[in-house]
């Protein structure tokens, strides 16, 4: 100990010097350790095992411990530690389960000293006793910890944690016989090396594996732990039960934790994945790091303070195959870049806003309350601590209250209960859901359902079956009282002119709809046509046109042509036309080939008012008047994404179910699964279990449909002997009595069975309901006061 004191004194007087520097390694590092005089560092990994000297300006390689033509797995290191009492002694934890010690004082190239192969799986951690030279502790993936005496060939004691793998072991800095071990099941155990049969204390430190632990170098009872739950916790072990005194929330799993020398409340951490930085935390202010080192480009695997009494130098190794020495003065201070404003919503919609006093002091409406806001006593001003190295910023808190009625979710519950997602034709589902949304004062959602019906419904569902038009469908349309001859002529174009050939037979597709010859019109101007039977002959002014004039109009004298309007009385229904007149063949060809004739113009080629047009149709329209459903899929996909991004996953999922295969292929499975899970979670929060189960059944995602296929087994006990029912049926195999007997009628219940969770008696649902209407006592006579809810 005297020798150690002399070394420490010499270092403190001269001081460790250097700068921020790094060197490239041959392979990624798994762990690093520094020698007691802070002049050398050892780096170990699967393919590297070297010692570097720490000089003023750079790292200098001193020794390569991987020797031999074919290095064995003993050189593949998961952890390494340099003894702090003996400068030539190192220990490594090998991935093949071996614990190896190395003597740097050996004259040969191979410095391996002793080999212990008692562990069956990878050794995760090795640790020397801080004051005993020959005592070495190891923790392995096999769940055992072993204590080795280096003067012997085998371990002197084995500690079984009765748990999963051991991730870290650390001797206490102050208690000679105590060490701590962390496990993958979230537990931390404290052991006495003199009692290997049972741990002294065990407590659950984290939810998930505990990857690391470290005893405080100055405070005897403080133990820091880090785990996969992204937390670093500080425990006070001096009490009867381990007490959590500090908790730091990080952004990734914590792989290493090391207390900072000479700083009671500071510790350094690095992450196991995702985050490459090294953070130094002040545990009294756990929400923002005190300092950050951002040099590494990959995950940091090992950190160690260069000297146990110097807080200014930190060494680190990484998977990016670099070794760094960090100077604390070069660290980034996140608090300097932190946003001094805070914003948070409360459980009932209240909004809290905190900002600098200087920003809010200009608000004349705000009334400051000294010592905190009296209306909200949970907020208070923190008393300044002179030992903290943080800048003090005084903030003011404003709380904005909201009306509870404005944030109610009644519309969500009612919509979920009233929506129809299956069981009816598509058009009826859309109409029903649109009506529900309209009644709940959600016009945009209602309009969306109506548009979906128009886009994806079969055209036959939007009109009466058949291709013919009739008056009943056009009753809501405005009446066409006049028609421009010029507009029709110019619309048809010169290509549509037809020569009259009265002597030729005609094949006309224009025919009258049977059964609709009786015309009914409420327009007073058309009283002359009311009650007329038979089919009409068309009169144009004073001259009667041939049938061919229904299809062609000659405009040879364009100069003499004048625009005029036909009176409606010109179209009078005369005698019945016995045969359906046909159009010439060249007429059909011209109409099909003419690029100027649209679908609507092909259907209407006569100058008639809307009443007469209602009697005329085309059996086979030249162009489909309806767009295919696939045309709207991109628009609907964007619409669903919009609703989901706005937080209305109810609408997104409901449309997804109702549309089914029409839209499902347009949206990737992961997005659908995310929407389904979000909606199901909301439904279950509102205890809408039936709706949730219906959504699960109607979904097509395999990850969703399996949700109601798990945990469907119900374990029951016999109502007579109270023992579990092991076989199927109604007879208990132990007492040989009928287990499910109705307490009212004393018959076996073969259908729905209801029972009291207090006394286990029950029976037919209807019988129990009727019984409890008149009596509160159990019908079995056990005296229990049953309650049916």
From TrEMBL:
CDD domains according to UniProt: mRING-H2-C3H3C2_WDR24 (cd16693)
Biological process terms in GO annotation: autophagy; cellular response to amino acid starvation; positive regulation of macroautophagy; positive regulation of TORC1 signaling
Region (Disordered): 486-533
Primary location group: membrane
SMART domains: WD40
Catalytic activity: S-ubiquitinyl-[E2 ubiquitin-conjugating enzyme]-L-cysteine + [acceptor protein]-L-lysine = [E2 ubiquitin-conjugating enzyme]-L-cysteine + N(6)-ubiquitinyl-[acceptor protein]-L-lysine
Pathway it works in: Protein modification; protein ubiquitination
Transmembrane parts of this sequence: none
WD repeat coordinates: 116-158, 203-245
GO MF annotation terms: ubiquitin protein ligase activity; zinc ion binding
GO cellular component, one term: cytosol
InterPro entries: WD40/YVTN_repeat-like_dom_sf, WD40_repeat_CS, WD40_repeat_dom_sf, WD40_rpt, WDR24
UniProt similarity note: Belongs to the WD repeat WDR24 family.
Name the UniProt record assigns to this protein: GATOR2 complex protein WDR24
């Amino acid at each position: 100990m005297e020798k150690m004191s002399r070394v420490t004194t010499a270092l403190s007087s001269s001081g460790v010097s250097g700068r921020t520097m790094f060197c490239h390694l041959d392979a990624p590092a798994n762990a690093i350790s520094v020698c007691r005089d802070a002049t050398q560092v050892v780096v170990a990994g699967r393919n590297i095992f070297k010692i570097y000297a720490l000089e003023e300006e750079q790292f200098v390689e001193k020794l390569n411990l991987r020797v031999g033509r074919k290095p064995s797995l003993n050189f593949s290191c998961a952890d390494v530690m340099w003894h702090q009492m003996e400068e030539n002694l190192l220990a490594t934890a090998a991935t093949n389960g071996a614990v190896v010690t190395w003597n740097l004082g050996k004259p040969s190239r191979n410095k391996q000293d002793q080999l212990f192969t008692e562990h069956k799986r990878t050794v995760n951690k090795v640790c020397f006793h801080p004051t005993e030279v020959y005592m070495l502790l190891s923790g392995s993936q096999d769940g055992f910890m072993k204590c080795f005496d280096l003067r012997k060939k085998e371990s002197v004691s084995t500690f079984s944690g009765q748990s999963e793998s051991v991730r870290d072991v650390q001797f206490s800095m102050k208690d000679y016989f105590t060490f701590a071990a962390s496990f993958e099941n979230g537990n931390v155990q404290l052991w006495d090396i003199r009692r290997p049969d049972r741990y002294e204390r065990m407590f659950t430190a984290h939810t998930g594996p505990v990857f690391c632990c470290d005893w405080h170098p100055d405070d005897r009872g403080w133990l820091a732990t880090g785990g996969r739950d992204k937390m670093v916790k500080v425990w006070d072990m001096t009490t009867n039960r381990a007490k959590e005194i500090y908790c730091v929330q990080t952004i990734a799993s914590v792989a290493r934790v090391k207390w900072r020398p000479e700083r009671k409340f500071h510790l350094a951490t690095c992450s196991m994945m995702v985050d490459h930085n090294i953070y130094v935390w002040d545990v009294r202010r756990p929400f923002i790091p005190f300092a950050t080192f951002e040099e590494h480009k990959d995950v940091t695997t090992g950190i160690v303070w260069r000297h146990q009494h110097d807080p200014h130098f930190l060494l680190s190794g990484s998977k990016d195959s670099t070794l760094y020495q960090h100077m604390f003065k070069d660290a980034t201070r996140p608090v300097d870049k932190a946003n001094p404003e805070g914003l948070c919503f409360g459980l009932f919609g209240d909004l809290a806003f905190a900002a600098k006093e200087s920003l809010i002091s200009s608000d004349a409406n705000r009334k400051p309350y000294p010592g905190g806001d009296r209306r909200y006593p949970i907020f208070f001003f923190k008393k300044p601590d002179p030992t903290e190295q943080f800048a003090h910023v005084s903030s003011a808190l404003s709380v904005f209250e909201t009306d509870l009625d404005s944030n109610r979710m009644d519309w969500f519950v009612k919509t979920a209960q009233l929506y129809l997602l299956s069981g009816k034709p598509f058009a009826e589902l859309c109409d029903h859901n649109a009506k529900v949304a309209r009644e709940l004062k959600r016009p945009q959602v209602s309009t969306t359902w109506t548009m979906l019906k128009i886009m994806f419904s079969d055209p036959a569902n939007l009109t009466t079956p058949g291709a013919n038009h009739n008056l009943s469908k056009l009753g809501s349309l405005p009446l066409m009282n006049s028609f421009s001859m010029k507009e029709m002529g110019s619309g048809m174009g010169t290509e549509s002119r037809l020569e009259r050939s009265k002597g030729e037979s005609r094949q006309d597709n224009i025919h009258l709809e049977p059964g609709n010859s009786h015309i009914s019109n409420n327009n007073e101007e058309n009283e002359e046509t009311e009650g007329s039977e038979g089919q009409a002959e068309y009169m144009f002014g004073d001259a009667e046109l041939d049938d061919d004039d229904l299809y062609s109009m000659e405009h040879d004298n364009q100069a003499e042509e004048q625009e005029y309007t036909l009176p409606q009385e010109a179209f009078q229904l005369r005698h019945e036309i016995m045969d359906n007149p046909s159009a010439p063949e060249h007429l059909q060809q011209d109409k099909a080939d003419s690029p100027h004739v649209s679908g609507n113009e092909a259907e209407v080629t006569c100058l008639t008012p809307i009443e007469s047009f209602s009697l005329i149709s085309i059996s086979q329209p030249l162009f489909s008047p309806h767009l295919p459903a696939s045309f709207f899929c991109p628009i609907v996909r964007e619409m669903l994404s919009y609703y989901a991004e706005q937080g209305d996953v109810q609408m997104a999922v409901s449309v997804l179910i109702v549309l089914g295969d029409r839209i499902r292929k347009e949206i990737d499975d992961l997005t659908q699964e995310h929407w389904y899970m979000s909606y199901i979670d909301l439904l279950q929060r509102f205890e809408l279990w039936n709706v949730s189960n219906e959504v699960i059944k109607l979904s097509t995602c395999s990850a969703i449909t399996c949700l109601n296929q798990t945990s469907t087994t119900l374990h029951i006990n016999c109502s007579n002997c109270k023992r579990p029912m092991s076989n199927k049926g109604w007879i208990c195999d132990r007492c040989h009595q009928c287990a499910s007997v109705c307490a009212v009628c004393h018959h076996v219940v073969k259908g729905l069975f209801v029972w009291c969770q207090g006394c286990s008696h029950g029976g037919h649902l209807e019988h129990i309901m009727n019984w409890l209407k008149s009596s509160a006592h159990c019908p079995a006579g056990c005296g229990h006061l049953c309650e049916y809810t």
